[in-house]
């Protein structure tokens, strides 16, 4: 794949949206298994308790079985709502098929769910979030200098073909390489609050403003200015919040094409909706596994349309993430 030939088709203005699947492939410590291993060393008691509480829900393959277990666990008064919110909307159905809790974000969901029956406290949730900040800080190793020179050169050629870059990542790899401003939708280690402009240098992990949430609604509440209501209404009007302004900029972007890389869209309905509602975007290029990109079953294309193209007004194209990684790594 040649960057110029694949990315300047018809001279379309192009935007890139990047998620944590990008950083985790460049810096090993950002892989979920590495982060969970660190968490276990720091807060083993809480993690073991969360795994034990969730254990009865593992390997259940239908909604009725999950709901029955929820009733038995003590959610008898609101088990239907718990199932809809945490398993369907927030994605904990995935965790039911895993041996252990697989990610910090899903751990936060499980802690929040069991808070509803008194098994965890708000202090437990906040301590988990603070440790998550520390783990993502990675002892300050979240800059372009922490990846190889050859990767930095290749990334520069790729990233700088885009007119805009948005990301949900907290690290500063993109900022170090991209020659324009990077829009950190969920804050990062150069932000001290949602209303502040990014600093030139990172702050300490406990001073950084990072958006953590078990759902798109919770994340949006942390991004927006005070006094705004959920659900989100378009066009967005967000005053006094830099992060909220970034979301508004995505919804109003004049790019005709958006490339989505390393971003699943799970629990980020506020971002997905901004893409759906942007009538300027004519095509979505989504990078996925080679098998999904080449499949004739269109399963992945259907799920991508459900996330980003519900009104079917945009063209959806799947490309293999190997097209990019083969040139970077």
Distance N terminus to C terminus? 14 Å
What is the CATH fold-level name of the largest domain?
A: Rossmann fold
Which structural category do the helix and sheet elements fall into?
Answer: alpha/beta
| DSSP summary, beta strand count | 8
Query: Taking all residues together, what is the mean pLDDT?
Result: 91
- How do the SSEs run, as a string of H and E? HEHHHHHHHHEHEEEHHEHEHHEH
Extract low-pLDDT stretches.
227-239
- The rough form would be described as globular
Q: What is the CATH C level class of the largest domain, in words? A: Alpha Beta
Count of structural domains? 2
Radius of gyration: 20 Å
Number of helices: 16
Biggest sheet features: 6 strands, parallel
Helix content: 40-55%
Main sheet: which strands, in order across? 3-2-1-6-7-8
| β-sheet strand percentage | 5-15%
Can you characterise this structure?
This protein has a six-stranded parallel beta sheet with strand order 3-2-1-6-7-8. The protein has a two-stranded antiparallel ribbon with strand order 4-5. Helices cover 46% and strands 10% of the residues. By secondary structure, the chain is α/β, with parallel strands linked by helices. It is built from 16 helices and eight strands. Mean pLDDT is 91; it is low at 227-239. Strand 2, helix 10 and strand 3 form a beta-alpha-beta unit. The chain folds into two domains: 3-27 and 142-328, Rossmann fold; 32-139, no CATH class. The chain has helices at residues 3-7, 20-26, 32-42, 44-54, 63-75, 79-89, 104-115, 122-137, 149-159, 173-177, 216-223, 242-252, 269-277, 290-294, 299-308, 322-328; strands at residues 14-18, 164-167, 182-184, 187-188, 209-210, 257-261, 283-288, 315-320.
């Amino acid at each position: 794949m040649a960057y110029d030939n694949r990315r300047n088709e018809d001279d379309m203005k192009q935007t890139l949206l990047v998620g944590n699947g990008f950083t985790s492939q460049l810096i090993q410590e950002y892989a979920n298994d590495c982060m969970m291993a660190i968490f276990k060393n720091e807060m083993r008691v809480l993690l073991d308790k969360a795994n034990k509480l969730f254990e009865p829900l593992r390997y259940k393959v239908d909604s009725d079985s999950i709901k029955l277990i929820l009733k038995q666990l003590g959610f008898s008064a609101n088990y239907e709502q718990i199932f809809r919110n945490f398993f369907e909307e927030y994605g904990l159905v995935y965790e039911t098929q895993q041996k252990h809790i697989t990610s910090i974000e899903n751990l936060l969901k499980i802690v929040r769910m069991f808070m509803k029956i008194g098994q965890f406290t708000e202090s437990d949730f906040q301590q988990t979030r603070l440790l998550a900040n520390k783990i993502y800080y990675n002892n300050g190793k979240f800059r372009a200098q922490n990846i190889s020179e050859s990767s930095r050169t290749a990334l520069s050629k790729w990233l700088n073909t885009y007119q805009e870059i948005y990301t949900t990542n907290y690290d500063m790899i993109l900022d170090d390489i991209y020659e324009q401003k990077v829009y950190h939708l969920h804050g990062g280690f150069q932000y001290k609050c949602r209303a502040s402009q990014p600093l030139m240098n990172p702050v300490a992990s406990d001073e950084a403003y990072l958006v953590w949430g078990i759902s798109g609604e919770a994340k949006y509440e942390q991004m927006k200015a005070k006094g705004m209501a959920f659900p989100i209404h378009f066009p967005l009007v967000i005053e006094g919040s830099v992060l909220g302004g970034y979301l508004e900029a995505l919804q109003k972007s004049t790019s005709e094409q958006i490339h989505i890389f390393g971003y699943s869209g799970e629990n980020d309905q506020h971002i997905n909706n901004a893409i759906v509602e942007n009538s300027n975007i004519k095509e979505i290029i989504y990078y996925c596994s080679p098998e999904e990109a080449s499949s004739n079953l269109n399963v992945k294309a259907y799920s991508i349309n459900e996330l980003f193209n519900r009104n079917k007004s945009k063209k959806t194209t799947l490309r293999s993430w190997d097209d990019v990684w083969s040139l970077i790594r």
